[in-house]
Design a protein that fits this description.
single chain, alpha+beta, 6-stranded antiparallel beta sheet, 2 helices, 6 strands
Length: about 150
């Protein structure tokens, strides 16, 4: 075998190694992109679920208020339920009288319900004002709002 053929074989080997490395880098890059997209999708799903869990906390608070006519005497101002399991996450409900932080003092005061939903790393907090209305309670129009901590 002459020297010229040996060099050509060596060059082909180097080219094949170079192409293999390029293909490997492209494959690893594609895997990284898929992981990032998956993480983004899971994060978006978690955020949507956390929002639903926060809304569920508010609905549970509203249910307890409607279900118990003496709820102002039976339940204190503050956290009514904390880290309650729901689906793949939890919710927390806080009920406060913003005037004096005492639900018992004035039955005609409005109250603020704050629901916090958590799923994975996502956390969503909703707040709503509830006002007395002819012996019952209703959500004051336009009071739903997202709370940013």
């Amino acid at each position: 075998m002459n020297d010229h053929n040996r060099r050509r074989r060596g060059s082909v080997y180097v080219v094949v190694l170079g192409v293999a490395m390029i293909v490997t880098v492209i494959g690893l890059s594609a895997l990284a992109v898929v992981r990032i997209e998956r993480r983004s999708l899971v994060g978006g799903t978690d955020f949507g679920q956390a929002r639903l869990y926060a809304h569920s906390a508010i609905e549970m608070g509203f249910f307890w208020i409607r279900d118990d006519p003496t709820w102002r005497d039976n339940r204190p101002s503050g956290v009514w339920v904390e880290d309650q399991l729901i689906g793949d996450g939890t919710f927390t409900l806080e009920v406060k009288d913003p005037d004096d932080n005492n639900l018992k003092t004035e039955p005609n005061n409005f109250i603020v319900l704050t629901g916090t939903g958590v799923r994975g790393d996502a956390r969503f907090k909703l707040q709503v004002t509830v006002v007395p209305d002819r012996g019952g309670y209703e959500i004051s129009s336009g009071t739903w709002r997202q709370v940013v901590d």
